[in-house]
Design brief:
This protein has 94 residues and is mostly helical. It has 2 domains: 3-49, 434 Repressor (Amino-terminal Domain); 62-93. The chain is built from 6 helices and no strands. α1 (3-10) crosses α2 and α5 (62-68) packs antiparallel against α6.
Length: 94
């Protein structure tokens, strides 16, 4: 994917993305999330590839995985998140 296409898909300007690529700008978490979405990968994977997270021992963020899954409908995503959060809250109580 070209830099221009990625910038368009992520909703950011081509010059700004170029500055990020060259290390002149540090993107916000929101920009990184937009880039991850445009690349159809999770934000965690993007962080790993950028060297911001160690690949070994990193807990995958379940809510992000659900959000980025293009095969799920919005209704399915909401339902899965509710189930996930109910399990997590039970684990904390125990």
């Amino acid at each position: 994917m070209s830099l221009r296409k990625l910038a368009d898909a992520a909703g950011i300007s081509n010059p700004y993305l170029s500055q990020i690529e060259r290390g002149l700008r540090k993107p916000s978490a929101e920009i990184l999330k937009s880039l991850a979405r445009a690349l159809s990968i999770s934000a965690e994977t993007l962080y790993e590839k950028a060297g911001l997270l160690d690949e070994v021992g990193v807990r995958r963020d379940v809510p992000d995985a659900i959000e980025f899954d293009e095969h799920l409908t919005k209704t399915q995503k909401v339902a899965l998140l509710e189930v996930y959060h109910s399990f997590i809250s039970q684990e904390i109580e125990e």
